[in-house]
Amino acid sequence: MDEYEKKIYSMLQDSFLPKALQVKDVSGGCGSMFAILVESEKFKGIPMIKQHRLVNEVLKDEISKWHGIQLRTKSA
Predict the structure, then answer these.
(1) pLDDT higher for 1 or 24?
(2) GO cellular component terms (predicted)?
(3) What CATH number should be reported for the domain holding residue 27?
């Protein structure tokens, strides 16, 4: 993981205490598109769209700099 991926990983780790977490720059290294998987107990009983909104809220300042995001969330 490069430094920016580690930053995103850390933000999500701190917010969701996930059982599984993956952050990958899929833009060829320019940091403009990320594939993210977050599996957390904090998502239990929450519809997927609301899970995505929670992640988007945590990353909103970073997402504003990106071209896109491939986001997958799961309840642990």
Answers:
(1) 24
(2) mitochondrial matrix
(3) 3.30.300.90
CA distances (Å), origin 51, targets 19, 31, 75: 15, 23, 9
Place of tokens 């999500």: 12
58 is in which domain, residue-wise?
Answer: 3-75
Over residues 37-61, mean pLDDT: 98
- Residue ranges with strand state E in the chain: 20-25, 33-40, 68-75
Helices then strands, each counted (H, E), the chain? 3, 3
Residue recorded with tokens 């720059």: 25
Burial of residue 61 (CB within 10 Å: 0-12, 13-18, 19+) is: exposed
Q: Tell me the per-residue pLDDT of 28-40, one tens digit each, with 9 for 90 and over.
A: 888 999 999 999 9
Residue 29 pLDDT: 82
